[in-house]
Amino acid sequence: MSSESKPIFSVKKLVKDFPTAGGPNSIRALNDVSFELFSGEAMAVVGESGSGKSTIARVLSLLHDKSAGDLNFKETEISGFSGEEIKRYRQQVQMIFQDPYGSLNPVHTIYHHLARPLLIHKKVKSKKELPDKIHALLEEVGLTPAVETAKKFPFELSGGQRQRVCIAKTLAIGADVVLADEPTSALDVSIRLGVLNLMQKMKREHNVAFMYITHDLATARYFAERTAVMYVGHMVEWGETEDIIQDPQHPYTQLLISAVPSPLKRHQKEEKSLHVKNKDIPTWTASSVGCPFVGRCIHAMDKCSQSMPEITKISEKHFVRCFLHDGSGQ
Amino acid sequence: MKSIFAFYRGNTPALMGSIIVFTFILLSALAPWIAPYDAEKRVARGHQPPSAEHILGTTRSGKDVLSQVLYAGRISLTVGFASGLIATVIAVLLGVTSAYVGGRVDAFLMFLTNVFLVLPGLPLIVVLAAFLGEVGPLSIALILGLFGWPGGARVMRAQALSIREKEFVTAAEVIGESKWRIVVVEILPNMVSLIVGTFTGAALGAVMGQAALEFIGLGDPNVISWGTMLFWAQNNSALIVGAWWDAIVPGVAIAVFAMGLALLNMGMDQISNPQLKGSKNLKQWKKLNDELQANRKKKQESRKIAGEVVEG
Ligand SMILES: Nc1ncnc2c1ncn2[C@@H]1O[C@H](COP(=O)(O)OP(=O)(O)O)[C@@H](O)[C@H]1O
Ligand SMILES: [Mg+2]
């Protein structure tokens, strides 16, 4: 279905450099990142911490400027937006943060947190409509009794409840795209599913597109139709989530999958030892070359440290960047 | 009500400080009703020791010391609070603007702050006061306020910088809040304890500063304040002639009130939590802060490594 409809987001060859303090060389947090996002669909972005996942979300949220590449939202380049354009964009693209304890202002009530987006984006005609609207939102995200919850301060809520408040904010705005940066990572395992189900509901009922950032393949499999695997700012493998998990091609994806607990793997101990074998994760800079995974890769070849392999199509919707699969590779 | 209890629980300095400061405010406010005599009139013979009629004795010119110290409180407290307010407003404006705007504005404002910070405060004020002649309470409040902000501005900037990095500020940006609303509605309320702390600190400095200026004779001697009371006592050699009450009473008033402000200031420092509503949250805030620091360290390290990789 996705290949026929037009993507909401189309990102091509995105590069993001962060200047280093006192040095001409900058950290390259994103290098040659390309993907498309379609409505009503979730794309998981998976990778260890430091792989640039949050940076993608922050660039798409206009919190950072891109360094190079194309960022098209509904066929319009977003960098260079100003004033009203930014406001209109924010009305469509929202973000959920990893840390539910940090993303709500401790001095304001839940009511304030939901009233602001409604007022900024004129989702209510007058302030009189606010209470009803806010209570309805709280009920929709399962925070009942809504009237009581609205009066509470963030510290009176659990992590899961706070994350539901953040989801309610995106609902209040009526965003078409939600960039969810590890929304369940800080939560207890027992309440993750509830939050994921709520996002699932938004996807189905409101046709919201999700970029689901996580380092947890199990939740990606549960929630996202497609998955992109990131390593040190590079997309190394992407495709339908099932294909990625059942038939991982890149050695890094294989490593990630071996780190997922039980049902997916059998020989836990052996594979764990493989996981810690060579843990030198490079810091990528503008002048770095080769495949970033080469230091940890058990299949590493000479050419791996000389250039980044091109994209290889494994199947209709499954792609990888690795010399093992490059026609010229073996 | 509950939140007031929660605020003072385990924070003895804040409680003690509040009691002292509020007692002083109350006594000064009620001076016209509770003072036994007219503070400006001769009501007895000079230098009478404490007695039933004049509980704290009389001054050399036969004025009632108790009445004077009560009325003097009105001036001294007003100058302290007014000057504290001026200093705090400047500190908040400069500190928060500096942190939020950043770049060149930040560099300039911090330069200005550092210049003011290294200026030798009191000597300069003495010179200025001497230059202006006998300065009244209003001028003293202004002078002390205009010199009392730099320390506060630096702390404000530091805290605003750390709050600016919090995700709720980013979240506010993402939902489309305007810059000034982020500063005023999202960041400032999280700085309440620091603002109150800065205010008490500045007020403390001003009360002491005013007393010092007036004591050395730079103030207007016709105004009744604790400083001028000390000035007259000194002028009339109160201690030498044995009229200790004349000097001790205003001295003790200044010392106790200053202690009250200092305790309140300490109490505010204890609350590293910007929200004054519960101890659970305090821990949370500390945890957050620690994580933030750790994160920043990590980032710096990775940058350092990047530098080495490139050079190596
Ligand atoms: N604001 C920033 N300034 C400098 N470097 C940054 C900044 N944000 C992220 N980085 C760097 O970019 C890289 C990717 O970070 P991030 O996107 O947060 O990764 P992830 O979310 O996958 O853990 C890291 O090396 C990090 O140090
Ligand atoms: Mg992240």
UniProtKB/TrEMBL annotation, chain A:
Domain ABC transporter: 9-257
Native source species: Leucothrix arctica
Keyword S-adenosyl-L-methionine tagged: no
Lineage top rank: taxon: Bacteria
NCBIfam families, alphabetized: oligo_HPY
One Pfam family per UniProt: oligo_HPY
Keywords attached to this entry: ATP-binding, Nucleotide-binding, Transport
GO molecular function, one term: ATP binding
GO biological process: peptide transport; transmembrane transport
Keyword ATP-binding recorded: yes
Protein name (Swiss-Prot/TrEMBL): ABC transporter ATP-binding protein
Coiled coil feature spans: none
From TrEMBL, chain B:
Keyword set, alphabetical order: Cell membrane, Membrane, Transmembrane, Transmembrane helix, Transport
Transport listed as a keyword: yes
Membrane topology: Multi-pass membrane protein
Gene3D superfamilies: MetI-like
Domain ABC transmembrane type-1 stretches: 73-265
Keyword presence, Cell membrane: yes
Protein name in UniProt: Peptide ABC transporter permease
Organism field: Leucothrix arctica
